[in-house]
Prior knowledge:
This protein has 504 residues and is of the alpha+beta class. It folds into 2 domains: 3-257 and 280-359 and 367-392, no CATH class; 405-498, no CATH class. Helix content is 58%, strand content 6%. The chain contains 20 helices and 8 strands. 43% of the residues are buried.
Amino acid sequence: MPSDQAPAGPIFSRRGFLYLLGMLVLLRLLLNCMVPLMDPSEARYALICKIMAESGNYLEPKLIHDGVLMNFEGKPPLSFQAGAVACSIFGVNLFAVRLPSFLFAAGLLAVLYGAVRRIKGENVAQLAVLLTLSSPVFFLYAGMCMTDMALAFCVCSAVFAYMLFDHESARPGKELASIGFFAALGLGMLVKGPVALVMAGIPVFLFVLLGDRWRDLKNHDWLLGSATFVLIAAPWYVLMQRANPDFLYYFFVNENFKRFLFKEYGDQYGAGRETFRGMALVWFLLSNLPAILLILFPACSKKGRRKLAQLCREHVLADDLPLLGVLAITLFWCLTSRVLITYVLPTVPFFSVWLANSLTEWDFAGRERFRHVLRAGLPLIWCIVGAVFSLLWIAGDRWVDKMPGDFFRDAGKLIQNGEFYFYRRVPYSAYFYFGDRTIPHADEDAPTSEAASQGYFLVSRKRDIRRHPLKYPRRLLLETGVWALYAPVEGTGNAGTAAEPPTE
Length: 504
């Protein structure tokens, strides 16, 4: 038999598989500690974690917005609570605030591997994990202080639990999978609210509807499962409503209904990003690169195209829950123009499971050429991603306006004591890096900002200075290609002391 038609075997040995995972864990953790926070979203969530850890108030997420300390009612607290716990253990730093996303990503991959291995076997499970990790978008958000990886964990865990529920024949196995399904939905309510129920519920509903699986619903442990869901999800909402009487209306109506229907929906924390309806399809394609290109592999030969066409005709969509997850989530977000690439993040593991299983069924996963592509290609992708992140860290403050962390750290070391005033507007990352040494204020025009900043060390984007030159002379202490730090006007206020600026 030609080697190209050899029987399918593992793409990587068990040792090789674990070695690759270990290398990726190390790379991601290193990048978590190195790459500065990105404004505005990541820095805003990191600030919430910091305030929660320092205040000890784990009920109400808080942030400084427009110079005012206020409740953040746009999202439930689970991600922030996890970040605050990490800050309490490891201190307030980049590693701590990003650790929860890393752990949620690891948990997602563990659930994926366990469920798919039980249903489809070791080879499909390994390949699905590796394809998921080959997505630069997944790798990126596995180490960012955001809520999206936590949501992906909950949505994917619920769907994989339902796959196990459908697969298991024994009563104890079905009950355990059923309770896991409800528990994942409960956690999703604590991460982003009802959108978790929609993203997990639509594919499961279609799976039951198209496959006529209504009779199997009686095997759910409805009593214990529902109790698990309520006990996980309800207490925080009740306590938050008691402390803030307008919370439930704002959260459910403004953030989870009007947000996706109206441009002006009463957002208290800034404007949502507008794209166009159908943008979710573009985000899906970008999120699942380069794995999506492997679909072209069977089409490289005439025989492969014939076999692929035959298998596609015989494919039953109603029996493929991961593919239903891909279609349902992508098409759901196509209905709104206010969609980010992170909204389709759960499609990455779903698509990877479908693709890994399909390539195995199509008898391409075992072919030597295909195995060579994966063995060489996947490590290369991860090396490229790591190199890009490293370049961002090395040169970030020179050309990336949204990653000023290294500059802020250098400014904090240069100024031994004293307070910082930001020209015109304060980025969220300033509150994280400088803490209470940052003078909070709302966005200002240039004359107001300069007048108010006398007596403080002034921090500004250089482009703002070019557009609105300073009226009063100041001494430049530190600068990069984007940011500049100025000493205060002499004789005004108590500006603290500055160390000697570093010499070139």
